[in-house]
Amino acid sequence: MGKALIIGAGGVASVAVHKCVQNSEVFEEICIASRTKSKCDDLKAKLDGGKTKITTAQVDADNVEELIALINEVKPDIVMNLALPYQDLTIMDACLATKTHYMDTANYEPEDTAKFEYKWQWEYKERFEKAGITALLGSGFDPGVTSVFSAYALKHYFDEIEYIDILDCNGGDHGYPFATNFNPEINIREVSANGRYWENGEWIETEPMEIKREYNFAEVGQKDMYLLYHEELESLAKNITGIKRIRFFMTFGQSYITHLKALENVGMTSIEPIEFEGKQIIPLQFLKAILPDPASLGPRTVGKTNIGCIFKGKKDGKDKTYYVYNVCDHQECYKEVGSQAVSYTTGVPAMIGAAMIMTGKWNKPGVYNIEEFNPDPFMEELNKWGLPWVEDFNPVLVDALPEEKKDAELVR
Ligand code: NDP
Which of 7, 106, 124, 137 has its CA 20 to 30 A from that of 348? Predict the structure, then answer.
């Protein structure tokens, strides 16, 4: 069918490359390009010999000219941006210059401020429309699958959705006192930021980890979870019309929180540069360098993830609730592609999103968040490529606490 240029060779890219090779009917050829070419070559060495032709290249994705030269040489149908959020705009610029489709899994972030905003990328909409190319934003799990779940719920089960709770549970254990499951810099920026959710047309801000709930997750069990801001809230609040409240919760164990607090208190999670031995360094980047590489967690992580959305709304004038989620087993992922479930649950939808565009199932020039496309073919592919989903039409709601706990817990 076609050719993809994959930028990045980290945890998520590694899974996406495995999945593209499994889906060789669509991905006849891939080029893996990243800052460190040896990582691309290692992936090629592991997967060469199948039906998908694999090439590799070195590229600095902060450099638009280098990207344009590479795209002109490879001539891909799509660029899959699986590098870091800092590279989104340079890669979009290069796609515009070469009229090539674009996809990513995370919104653009300036290096010096953590914003989690789509505005920079949404500003490209008209230029992509005019160029006749598509930018698919947020084709990971969250954002990504959770957004597709929302579009699917609205299309099939509701006249209007009033409430969405996105629940991201990682019941995995890697045996380290502290490590992050994906890029530590991005992960720590996300959880140390203030919490925020959308209610009645406005954003309500909270302290970091201020709102806590417990939830009993299928196949994982009872976990503490905390309200965070997460980027899909911004686009879902805009695209799911009529929504009254949308929140995002992620589970964290006590050990993670204790370590994070200590690191924060001593300034190690700061993104303000400091001078150290005559050199400017960013504490959070230094911390990243000493923490375990997320890619090394694969063999030692056991347990499951459970990520999904609970919807509450109306159908034919009646109240309705619906929960759709995926459960993924860390060890099974490792056996299949050599990575744990957090990279797996992002890499699989990245491949599927790219395939939707390459096969023409999603064909809309402009810049779109993933929930703006027809969810049905994507939902089918999730079942096919390793992320089957489960539906529950009578779920326990997040705020359904026993009466005696209600007063204490619901006051934030
Ligand atoms: P990693 O840090 O493991 O990998 C990032 C890769 O990008 C590395 O190969 C790195 O190269 C490469 N890279 C970084 N800067 C450049 C550059 N300037 N030029 C070329 N290559 C570069 O990250 P992950 O794989 O964990 O995450 C990838 C993306 O997925 C991130 O944007 C993350 O936010 C997103 N994500 C999305 C999720 C979702 O559900 N939507 C969940 C998890 C992650 P090098 O090897 O040289 O460092």
Answer: 124
* Residue 160: φ, ψ to 5°: -145, 140
CATH number, domain with residue 163: 3.30.360.10
pLDDT tens digits, one per residue of 139-168: 999 999 999 999 999 999 999 999 999 999
Cβ of 13 closer than 6 Å to ligand 1, yes or no, is yes
The number of domains in the chain is 2
Q: Answer yes or no: do 322 and 197 share one domain.
A: yes
Query: What's the rounded mean pLDDT across residues 332-350?
Result: 95
Mean pLDDT score across all residues of the chain = 94
Same domain, 135 and 227: no
Give the H or E element holding residue 379: helix 375-384
- Which residue puts its alpha carbon closest to atom 41 of ligand 1? 140
147, 182, 185, 296, best to mutate for ligand 1 pocket (most atoms within 8 Å of CB): 182
Q: How many other CB atoms are there within 10 angstroms of residue 259's CB atom? A: 15
Tell whether the model's pLDDT for residue 102 goes beyond 70.
yes
Asked whether residue 229 is domain-assigned, the answer is yes
C-alpha 57 to ligand 1 mean position (Å): 16
Q: Does the pLDDT value for residue 23 go beyond 80?
A: yes
11 CA: nearest ligand 1 atom: 25
Number of H helices, E strands in the chain: 15, 18
Residues 282 and 381 in one domain: no
Res. 369 pLDDT band, cuts 50 70 90? very high
Q: Which three-class secondary structure state does DSSP give residue 206? A: strand
The verdict on 328 and 359 lying in the same domain is: no
CATH number of the CATH domain containing 18: 3.40.50.720
Say if residue 224 is in the same domain as residue 96. no
Is the sign of the CA dihedral 356, 362, 364, 369 positive or negative?
negative
Q: Is 61 in the pocket of ligand 1 (CB under 6 A)?
A: yes
- Locate the ligand 1 atom nearest the alpha carbon of residue 138 and give its number: 41
Of ligand 1's listed atoms, the one at least distance from the Cα of 182 is 26
- The rounded Å distance from CA 10 to ligand 1 centre is 5
Which pLDDT score, from 0 to 100, does residue 411 have?
43
pTM for this entry: 0.93
Peptide bond into 143 cis (omega under 30): yes
Q: Whole-angstrom Cα distance, residue 198 to residue 406?
A: 22
Residue 216 CA to ligand 1 center (angstroms) comes to 31
Mutate to test the pocket of ligand 1, among 121, 145, 166, 346 (most ligand atoms within 8 A of CB): 346
